[in-house]
Amino acid sequence: MNKPFSKEIVETLHKKLINEERDILARVRELKADDPFSNPDHVNDNAAIDTDVREQTGHDTIEAQVISLEKRLFQIQAAFKKIAEKKYGTCENCSKQILLARLQLVPEARYCIDCEKKFVK
User: Fold this and answer.
1) pLDDT of residue 1
2) From 57, 68, 91, 104, which residue has the greatest number of CB atoms within 10 Å?
3) Please, are residues 117 and 89 in contact by the beta-carbon 8 Å criterion?
4) How confident is the model at residue 37 (pLDDT cuts 50, 70, 90)?
């Protein structure tokens, strides 16, 4: 078992997670506001086919981005839980400590690099 990260390191990463959560929530709000389907007049609009296609494509693109951001948000919230349980920085698969450099880049990381590679294949 590896030595747990210092309180200072965990606090620094926790602040980074808080900032990323805030930024993601703001981005999701922006995307939803830009969604052509969020306009209540969209349902009653008798636009030309090409306009409908552009609106549908815009909606689909925004929806995919929101889903991706919400997945990341879920991972960030899971990291908050791990911090509270004093399990932050431990690989969920092999229980080894995740490298600090990895957590600095991806503070919501759930797996060490070796296990992540296994899952990505």
Assistant:
1) 54
2) 91
3) no
4) confident
